[in-house]
Design brief:
Blueprint: E1 3-9, H1 13-24, E2 31-38, E3 41-48, H2 51-60, H3 63-66, E4 71-77, E5 92-93, E6 99-104, H4 110-119, H5 131-142, H6 149-159, E7 164-170, E8 177-182, E9 187-190, E10 194-198, E11 210-213, E12 218-223, E13 226-230, E14 236-237, E15 242-243, H7 259-265, H8 267-275, E16 279-280, E17 283-284, H9 293-298, E18 302-306, H10 308-325, E19 329-333, H11 334-337, E20 349-354, H12 360-371, E21 375-380, H13 386-390, E22 393-396, H14 409-428, H15 434-456, H16 458-468, E23 473-478, H17 481-497, E24 500-505, E25 522-527, H18 533-545, E26 549-554, H19 560-564, E27 567-570, H20 579-598
Parallel strand pairs: 18-19, 18-20, 20-21, 21-22, 23-24, 23-25, 25-26, 26-27
Antiparallel strand pairs: 1-4, 1-10, 2-3, 2-4, 5-6, 6-7, 7-8, 8-12, 9-10, 9-11, 11-15, 12-13, 13-14, 16-17
Helix pairs in contact: 4-5, 5-6, 8-14, 8-15, 10-14, 10-17, 14-15, 14-20, 15-20, 16-20, 17-20
The chain binds 5-amino-5-deoxy-1-O-phosphono-D-mannitol.
Length: 615
């Protein structure tokens, strides 16, 4: 959720921290702060509001321009404990003012630790869980004859329970800072003029491409001329850095008004990059997945586990696996899977879908599935992320960095992977007749070109959005794959435009929710499944009869939707099984333009964060 950064070196620390925090603002943006050592003084500046509030203050006070600061840590916050406020913003100082901490994660035993520290005389100034860390580090630091920051952090992490990525500075040690992680991402950047930490790689790309990914329960001592890595017991660890070869531009807006619209335009390339290397001579090639016909035939259940948009991709995956492989599939929201005592055996396969690879509920649900014996396959975008590292096998989506909080191109690429996997499994199991296999592979290969055609029609979606951005409530109804698509279309709309929206199976509305349809209510109806068209047209008539305005999203040549809908968006001709990966794009554009017309902050919608690393 929150973003943390740190720097030590010859460069000017404050501009580096603010610039790097700017690349992490998608992780949280209700407050921001920095702690830095100037001479032998530790200074903290933190403010409620966007990063720009903090940056303006550092500029107005002349602090930014004055220079001469060579070590510091910074933070952008997504509030968990305590409302967004100056006091609750990070960094949090220890009582002596010598130690400052930035933290991403949740300290689960903070109440007990807080009571203990209060009994020792520590005074708390915020409502956060993080403040216990500042005081605990200080407690261990002052408990020894000569303060040792690294040792104090090592002792502190033995006592805290929960999740954390930490950056800790101490005014007595201007030549180093300390970082630690457990279940919250943290990477170390090795630069020529200094070294860095960050919650995510894009924050470092302007400065370095040599990165060490920290593992759980590791602690690092970062100095300007070197980095030492330790396990939780303080034993040294050697790890080679990895080289990041993405383009820095991939994490910039590149002339688009928002990251979201840029990322929607990247969908054809992202889908092509995800599928092309995995199709050879008309067959699916997935060396990442060593599954065999025997294993697939013995499989008792495929569990698809994910959150949010990735979960909606998983709903499409269920249809595909069941249809193509005839293996039963359950799809779970990760936070439910964890606690519902699911039936998983060593014959089960768990497919874990996550753009970030760091969503805590998804990560822990994967561990649950694994403990119960399932083979875990990750469909993940971020290389080297926690889910990618812990899964038994990983199939990477090649969406590139996704910065906008609302997921777009990641969904299309998750679907691309969710076509590849069941098609490959069906090929392995000998379940797919040769000619149908070829049709499917051809259909998949044609998707990027068709996405290009959808994007050429974006003005018609924009026009429709201009007519409806004042809507109070928008419904999406669909059947089969169109229902799965409707769920994603509705989520996209509500998260960035704040318009109330619901998605329902076409046949379910009349069991209650149709009571909400009144004169002028907008109902969006994807109708891409010819086998279900008659039934859907019946549902469209039901809502029309109650006064709804209907936008149809159609593929195929039938004129019948035209007869009942008020407006239509025509998708390129596509095999029905592949319609969701095309039809989602107009739905994303619709949400985008509605949010723009409403004047919403499209890339940073209220209350949300890109990477949800808390439960
Ligand atoms: O990184 P993940 O794919 O695991 O994230 C899962 C959800 O948090 C994410 O899809 C969220 O729903 C997005 N804001 C949707 O646009």
């Amino acid at each position: 959720m929150c973003g943390i950064v740190g720097y030590i070196g010859k460069g000017e620390t404050l501009p580096i921290l603010i610039d790097s925090l700017g690349k992490l603002e998608y992780r949280g943006y209700d407050s921001a702060g920095v702690a830095f050592i100037d001479g032998d003084e530790l200074t903290v500046v933190k403010r409620k509001g966007r990063l720009s509030v903090l940056a303006d203050e550092l500029t107005a006070s002349g602090r930014m321009a004055r220079g001469g600061v060579h070590v510091g840590v910074g933070h952008t916050r997504w509030a968990t404990h305590g409302a967004p406020s100056d006091e609750n913003s990070h960094p949090h100082l220890s009582n002596s003012g010598r130690i400052a901490v930035v933290h991403n994660g949740i300290i689960e035993n903070f109440s007990e630790l807080r009571a203990y520290l209060i009994s020792l005389g520590y005074v708390f100034r915020s409502d956060t869980d993080t403040e216990v860390i500042s005081h605990l580090v200080e407690h261990h630091y002052t408990g020894r004859e000569k303060g040792n920051l690294l040792q104090s952090v090592l002792e502190t992490i033995q006592e805290i329970e929960g999740t954390y990525a930490l950056g800790v500075v101490c005014s007595d040690s201007p030549d180093l800072f300390v970082a630690a992680r457990k279940d919250s991402p943290l990477v170390i950047g090795l630069g020529s003029d200094g070294n860095f930490i960050a919650s995510d790689i894009p924050a470092l790309l302007q400065h370095t491409r040599e990165v060490i990914i920290m593992e759980d329960r590791e602690v690092a001592e970062i100095r300007s001329n070197g980095v030492r890595l330790f396990d939780a017991l303080g034993h040294g660890i050697q790890r080679q850095p990895i080289h990041i070869d993405w383009d820095v531009d991939a994490a910039e807006k590149g002339g688009y008004e928002h990251f979201m619209i840029k990322e929607i335009h990247e969908e054809p390339k992202a889908v092509r990059d995800t599928i092309s290397p995995r199709i050879r001579d008309g067959r699916i090639v997935l060396p990442e997945l060593p599954w065999t016909r025997e294993q697939l035939e013995a499989c008792d259940m495929i569990h698809i586990i994910a959150c949010g948009t990735a979960y909606h991709a998983g709903m499409v995956g269920k249809y595909l696996f069941e249809h193509l492989c005839r293996i039963p599939v359950s799809v779970d929201v990760a936070s439910e899977f964890r606690y519902r005592d699911p039936i998983v055996t060593d014959r089960s396969i768990a497919i874990i879908i996550s753009q970030s690879g760091e969503t805590l509920d998804t990560l822990v649900a994967m561990r649950v599935a694994r403990e119960k014996g399932a083979t875990c396959i990750g469909i993940v975008n971020v290389v080297g992320s926690s889910i990618a590292r812990e899964a038994d096998h990983v199939v990477y989506t090649h969406a590139g960095p996704e910065i906008a909080v609302a997921s777009t191109k990641a969904y299309n690429t998750q679907l691309a992977a969710l076509y590849l996997l069941p098609l490959h499994a069906a090929e392995c199991m000998g379940r797919l007749p040769e000619d149908r296999d070829r049709q499917c592979v051809d259909a998949l290969l044609s998707i990027p070109g068709k996405l290009d055609s959808v994007l050429l029609e974006k003005e018609s979606i924009q026009r429709f959005a201009s007519l409806h951005f004042n809507a109070k409530s928008i419904f999406f109804i669909g059947r089969g794959l169109d229902y799965a698509l409707s769920m994603e279309a509705s989520l996209k709309l509500k998260e960035i435009s704040y318009i109330h929206s619901e998605a329902y199976p076409g046949g379910e509305l009349k069991h209650g929710t149709i009571a909400l349809i009144e004169e002028g209510t907008l109902v969006v109806c994807p109708m891409t499944q010819p086998a279900l068209l008659d039934k859907m047209l019946g549902n469209v008539r039901e809502v029309k009869a109650r006064g709804a305005t209907v936008l149809g999203l159609v593929s195929g040549t039938s004129n019948r939707p035209q007869e009942v809908c008020d407006a239509l968006f025509q998708l390129p001709e596509v095999d029905a099984m592949f319609a969701p990966i095309l039809a989602v794009t107009p739905a994303q554009l619709f949400a985008y333009y509605i949010a723009v017309y409403k004047g919403c902050d499209v890339d940073k919608p209220r209350n949300l964060a890109k990477s949800v690393t808390v439960e």
